[in-house]
Amino acid sequence: MTEPNVQSATRDPAALHAEFEAVWGNPRGWRALSIVNHTSLAKRFMVTGAVFFLIAGLLGMLLRAQLAQPNQGFMGVQAYNQIFTMHGTMMMFLFAVPMQQGLAAYLLPKMLGARDLVFPRLGAFGYWCYLFGGLIFTSSLLLGLAPDAGWFMYTPLSSNTYSPGLGADFWLLGITFIEIATMAAAIDIAVSILRARAACMGLHQLPIFAWAMLVTSLMVIVGFPPLILGSILLELERAAGWAFFDPTRGGDPLLWQHLFWLFGHPEVYIIFLPAAGVVSMLVPVYARRPLVGYLWVVVSMIGTGFISFGLWVHHMFAVGIPALSQAFFAMASMLVAVPTGIQLFAWIATLWSGRPVWSVPMLWIAGFLFIFVAGGLTGVMLAFVPFNWQVHDTHFVVAHFHYVLIGGMLFPLIAGIYHWLPHFSGRLPSEALAKTGFWLTFIGFNGTFLVMHWTGLLGMPRRVYTYDPGLGWDIPNLVSSVFSFVMAFGIATLLLDLALHWRHGRKAPLNPWQADTLEWASGTPPRSYNFVSLPRINTRHPLWDQPDLPETIAAGMHALPHAAHGRRETLGVDPVSGRVREVIHLPGNSWWPLTAGSLLAVLCIALLLKQYIPALVVTLAAAAAMLRWSWENGAHPLAAGTDAHDLPHGLELHSRTFDGPGLWGMGMTMLADAAFFASLLFGWLYLWTVVPGGQPAASSPLGHWPLAVVTALFGAGLWILHHVVQRLRKGNDIGLRSRLWTATVCGAASCVGLSWLLATAPLQPTLRAHDAVLAFTLLFLLLHGTLAAVLTALQALRVHHGHVSLAAPYEPAVVAILWRFCTLACALAWVLMALLPLAFGAPP
Amino acid sequence: MLDPAGPSAHAIAAVWWWMLGVSALVLLGVVALWLVAMGRHAPTANDDTQLGAGQTGRRWIIGGGIMLPVAAIVPLLIFGSPAGLHQLPLARSIAGETAAPPLRVNATGQQWWWALHYPASGVRLRNELRLPVGRPVFVHVGSVDVIHSFWVPRLGGKLDAIPGRIGIVRLQADQAGSFRGQCAEFCGLGHAHMVMTVIAMPAAEFDAWLTAQASVANHD
Known about the structure:
The structure holds 2 protein chains of 2 kinds. Chain A is mainly alpha-helical. Chain A folds into 3 domains: 36-507, Cytochrome c oxidase-like, subunit I domain (Cytochrome C Oxidase, Chain A, Up-down Bundle), CATH 1.20.210; 591-631, no CATH class; 693-844, Four Helix Bundle (Hemerythrin (Met), subunit A) (Up-down Bundle), CATH 1.20.120. In chain A, 66% of the residues lie in helices and 2% in strands. Chain A contains 25 helices and 4 strands. Chain A has helices spanning 13-24, 38-67, 77-112, 120-142, 167-195, 208-240, 253-287, 294-307, 323-335, 337-353, 360-383, 385-391, 395-425, 431-457, 474-504, 542-545, 549-554, 592-608, 612-631, 637-640, 661-689, 706-729, 736-760, 769-801, 811-840, and strands at residues 427-428, 506-507, 568-573, 580-586. The radius of gyration of chain A is 27 Å and the shape is globular. By secondary structure, chain B is of the alpha+beta class. Helices cover 40% and strands 25% of the residues of chain B. Chain B has helices spanning 7-39, 46-80, 82-85, 203-219, and strands at 103-110, 113-118, 123-126, 128-132, 137-143, 148-150, 159-161, 167-171, 177-182, 195-201. Chain B has a 5-stranded mixed β-sheet. In chain B, strands 4-10-9 form a 3-stranded mixed β-sheet, covered by helices on one side. A two-stranded antiparallel ribbon of chain B has the order 6-7. In chain B, helix 1 packs antiparallel against helix 2. Chain B is elongated and about 90 Å long.
């Protein structure tokens, strides 16, 4: 099986390490804040996530302490409402998603045979947004100003009228800020999986965890924008008085619920799929045989991703929507049991046909199996509408989602942490303490939440800070509270074990579990550059099929074994086949991500304090910082100032081609943008068709033609960019700069048109929800028009400085994607908002 | 809801017990399979089973992953779904028996109490809902401020009270008695104490009460 997979001569590993460390190594001291290396950032993500988990867990303990006995005076109703809101929000947004993205950012390049993720600075920026956003959000607890309307922030309760004060603003602004981090990480991860892998590693050879993260990241990219939109609209309603959700002004509180759950249900699978990916990685290792039904598992993960976008209404069965659509969403909710069942039985079949060994990770996976299957079964029950009408919003639901989330995410995550622990630290944990931790957590968990199903069936609604004695709720609540402390001891034991192992753990051998995937060839603990040389991988199980890979990699016998040129390089491959297409050169450490992140944090605080002039100034400063950051690309001396002459035959640096990760990054960003815009159009159509009395007049306040003119201007800019790229491809750069300036003028003209429309159209966003949506759409288009104009102007300047040229022709193609989006979005807005009312609107 | 006092709650409770039984079997089965698989050592090493593994694997996946969920869900939908009809505001009850014409009550949630209104007689109550035994009641649920949820667990499922909308839920009590109705959608500081008492009275008694109340209400 081992084919001679050697491309270069052997060199001394120590000398090679020194050569690579000089380029890839991390600076120490305060300069460490400029690090963009994925291993370092991922560790920061995971440690930060763990801290937020502990804070949110402590909040959960406080809740259980309050509910232990009826009419308990441990805390007041204000405190209770804040704490349950913070507990849920922090667990979902500050722990579950960032933690898994951190694990993925750590593992994926190593599993895929790459040296880093493709957007290192974006990764650093995401981390700072996450950290600052998390700190701002958590500080609301200390200030006593925490949000208290529940983690799904149903309006009107979360509106200005019923939630005055800063609590809801902390939620809307803080969470939106944190979501920037989530989106950034998702785009980084998705593009890296598709474009930065080992040579020849086809999609059919991806480790399952990479598949899971690919599906998850795409779900984040499409699923988070509806919530971001909803949050912005609600904050606009709170801060500027625009009507979106207020029924007295033509809005509808249910629109918030649709937008929220359009995000919120995929979110459950966004949390579960990475964990399922971890299980699919671990089971084969400990069963000592390849995963049974690889293709089935991949297809079911993709299927889960699709189905999860068709389920959101099952959170809204009790709002009284039509029976037919309830039936549809109930069936879809039950249908999702099929792909999950397929994965489950693929794991069982793998164990069945292998020679499994019990180990600490397998113990946690067995715990996962029990808890998650139980949670899945109650999930099918909840999808059954009449039963849902009874138990919705009771402690039965609380118990159900703790089974799904703790079982489906926390247990596999801990299994994964134990599995990859030797990789993080180079040491092995203690078996005895690890097992004690598991059993305490497992027993504590089931004692707490199994009983809680019963509490719900006895009629106890969720989110009540206390209850009267004599309703039969006393004993089950006490049992839950007692066992929740057992679980807390379990988690504490686990932490103790992890802390002790760092000092006292036995040294781990290179691949302690005899695993099959490449991350175990990157050294334990790993090197900053992961691999000295990049092997060609033509199998799903590289280390089982080529056991000598760690040595040949370290000896520099594979591709790109040089770093003396000072560039950080990794291979750019074809997304499907894994054929090598170019060499991606990655940026080095930079202060711009921290600068931009800090400025956004100031912006967030300024918006919280309702200081809009400073907010505007900070926004401009943040935009300037990001543009400055983007300046160091292409043929800029800090990126790849000179052409490379030592690349393998036929390969060029990506900035010297028309094909690089930035194209995909822009594409993914536009996908997110499209999801955002589609949610906005959904909101527009929803307010028009579903809400009683929402019918707009047959003549749109935007007039028939202004948007058509703006669309034409965008189209002209797109046409120019398109031609610029085509001419560059033909080797013609005559008039490159003036063409780019002309396109900039088109962008500026469309911005003028949109501003004129905003100023003159008879829109009353504070009085009518319909007008508010129209005005928001214009603002959205204006923002994109500005972005297109500024980025194109920047291209013209870069041509002037020689950072973009015939020799480095890559960037205009990236900017052209933004123009395409602007043109399409504006055309859609024109058709739906200006023309459609002509056909279906009521006569005035 | 495990001590049902009306047809809707009865039907749902019956479905629940079935679901619990089937789920417990499935859970035990899966866990047992897992433990057996963990304890078992495949008779031969990897390479020898590779040929057969494809087929065995497919059998496991199709049997467990596809057939099992379908076999569990289809009967649930077929036999369980009628349970939902009890709560919909249909003109006739599903059994087809000639019930008395439905009584209409408006239930309006506000922070943090329920306003009950009998539009036919003009009677208004606060946090107290009186019903005749054995006669369907159409509750028109609405809200004047935030979202609440109307729920009497022993009689049937809940319906959210949403400002700007009116929803209708059908209730029926089969026995006289007093039931608890607690707001189920988080609605702010007073959420935990937003409780209404539902009193089911024999039909004749109820009519007498309503007439008496109506005359008081109309005199005021």
